[in-house]
Amino acid sequence: MDPALDGPSDPESVARTIVLDKLSVKARTRSELADALAARDIPDEVAAKVLDRFGEVGLIDDAAFASAWVESRHRSRGLASRALAQELRRKGVDDELARDALGELEPEQEAETARALVRRKLPSMRNLERQVAMRRLLGMLARKGYPGGVAMSIIKEEMAASDEELPLLNDSGLETE
Hints:
With 177 residues, this protein is an all-alpha fold. It is 66% helix and 0% strand. Helix 4 crosses helix 6 (95-103), helix 5 packs antiparallel against helix 6 (95-103) and helix 8 crosses helix 9. The longest helix has 16 residues, at 62-77. The protein starts with 10 loop residues before the first helix and ends in a 15-residue tail after the last helix. The mean pLDDT is 88.
């Protein structure tokens, strides 16, 4: 249902319908909703009024959105705080709200998630040379936002721990001893 095609109605009513439609699908940030209203040519002052009202009644809450986003994306995708901060910035979450949400993510929790990602990937790399496996694991963690130094130390620890179970090939193509 397109409220703009239903006939003549006031822009505020159209804006409310657009916002409700967007929020009925999934949680959104104020910025995302403002962009949706701007794309539908809703005047800025009308959009601000509608968004303010939705914020007052708690239907738009960027802090709650950021907190839920960080928890969900870290748990489901294994993203580190750096990648999560970029995603929140793209979604228009205020930097201070993003920092608060990212502050809920403990460094130990991030490190354990990185370890779990490496452990899950290591068995599929058993037939690769050690340096190739390290490079691929480092690339995977870098794409998920983990800093290089942290990623490398976790990779080395996990590779050393897994050598007894699943030996990796050394640079000469022979299994490590």
